[in-house]
Amino acid sequence: MQHDNKMDPLKSSFTIGDVEIGVGRPFIIAELSGNHNQDFELAKRMIFEAANAGVDAIKLQTYTADSMTLDVDTADFLIDDRNSLWHGEKLHQLYQKASTPYEWHQPLFEYANSLGVLAFSSPFDEDAVDFLDALNVPCFKIASFEITDLPLIARAASKKKPLIISTGMASLAEIEEAVHTARLNGCDELVLLKCTSTYPASPENSNLLTIPHLKETFSTLVGLSDHTLGIGAAVASVAFGASVIEKHFVLSREDGGVDSAFSLEPKEFEALVRETQTAAMAIGKVNYGASKAEATSLTHRRSIYVSQDIAKGDNFNANNIRVVRPAFGLPPRYKDTILGKKAKRDIAKGTPLSWALVDG
């Protein structure tokens, strides 16, 4: 699979708003989706709690039921997957109740910004891209089911802003098409997110090993759009190179919301932010031997000590020397060499053995 060599290489780090992506800790996105239940004040409370949890950004979804699907009653437009949270629902009705009114976007973005949090959205059609661009969003997010909508990707890329694309069920060839389309239309700041398109997703279907493979194959920044329950998969993704992590957000799963079943509550998001930061710091570099922080701990190793009073000329034996902590005496590897040799002088119990005390 080859990229177009005539194009500039994709950037290995860049900024979204004032946050640098691809360096240090992961960029954490709280996806509000339709969990606001079309209650504006609830949406504001969600943003407030997400900001308190320490997220970098909140994300909306920009569509109407009519821009997403057709208002038709045939079987094609009903959700017939018995494993789906939305089994039996009509697509148009589902999107009606899950959509975020367009007139909310600007006040919600401004409110998030006032709390020090970035705000952007997933456009689901080309008009939505233009609408969001007019609101000066710092980036665009392409949802996993839209990765094959190349005209949508082209329009978003043409705005010359960072683009985050969830890969979902896409094949390598489909991801290649999406990446090529983004690059061809002017986007060189791109993040590909591993995403499992089940809601919720199971850990065994998360396949986090795909994350470094995405990075190697497409030379982009990578991350995880996570639909599993809890934070385990998201924290683990950091070790595989995730620079961006997206999770759905809800104030209370008990209160409901279209995506509440696989969304994190504020305290869980706080733990996600904290533990992914810890994971990022813990990765470090390949290192052997004592680090600077460990230097004082070297004294807690074992060494050879005199375990009984010894008179000058006595032989060292298994009763009068022992390998114990701390490490101020000779290293344990010399014990067999010393056994049978004579003491150069009287030595008190508790003395660390050194070559100066060994005759010959």
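(ticket continues) Second input and output from the same batch:
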Amino acid sequence: MNKPDFQDGAEHWSERLLADGYCVIPNLVPKTVAALDHDLALDFESAPFCSGGFYGARTKRFGRLLTRSCHARTLVQHPLVTAIVERVLAPWCDTIQLNLTQAIELHAGALPQLPHRDQDMWRGAIGEIEYLVNVMWPFTPYTRENGATLVWPESHGLRALAPSVESSEVAIEMEPGSALLFLGSTLHGAGGNESAAARRGAIVSYCLGWLKPYENQWLAYPPEVAARFPADLAALVGYRQHRPNLGNYEGQCPSILLRGEPCGPLQAMDALRPDQEALVEAFVADQLRSARYAMPHVSRAV
């Protein structure tokens, strides 16, 4: 996809996502998904079944996909997907961050999941802000029979405040390599698996850079691991500040840890938005002009 088409594509799919609460982009990375599924085969085999009614007793889940396969980076940093996410979340944050990477295997007999909205993990205002964008990547075909993700169209945004949902659920049937994007305010849930085979996939989600992410990224990818990532990927998993000064390490961007442990004390440095910088500069200049805060005169002995 050339650059003009890419930009047009990001705008088109962003509009669809914001209008309907979800969208399906077909045939994005079929070969990458097959390779990732292959790399995770032993992880799926060894992972225990989940505990609890929400995760599902017939479901296997595990995270930290960026440490398990190099192919996970292609999903996490897919240029069209990240462009859509940035367009959707930009009104409410300075930078986005990775919220979660999780592989999911829904086994035969798995019950439907409780319909829910992922934004409810944070206790912020509802209907005013979009907190995250989820991306479901199927490794096997998703069908209604094997538990394809259920989505309630147009259940997002202000409609999340309504006591009931007007639309009926839609089972998002799709092939490996396609991607289902849906908002954190969109009602959704895994379907029940009435087939004889497991359905596998992964969910990658992104949230506002000032939120606490679902998966603790600094534990999933400590500095010695993140130091091997490209700089933009390390930033996405949390090794950058979100202005003003959020997520700093000793007053500096945490990316400093990717160069090894600092040799000495670090100088705390402002990391402000332009409007805050202007406000601070004007305030400091005013104080310096004030006699009360004027620098004391130092006389020199002759």
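Agent notes: The mean pLDDT is 93. The beta strands are 22-25, 59-63, 96-106, 132-138, 149-151, 170-171, 179-183, 188-190, 199-208. Closing as not reproducible unless the customer responds.
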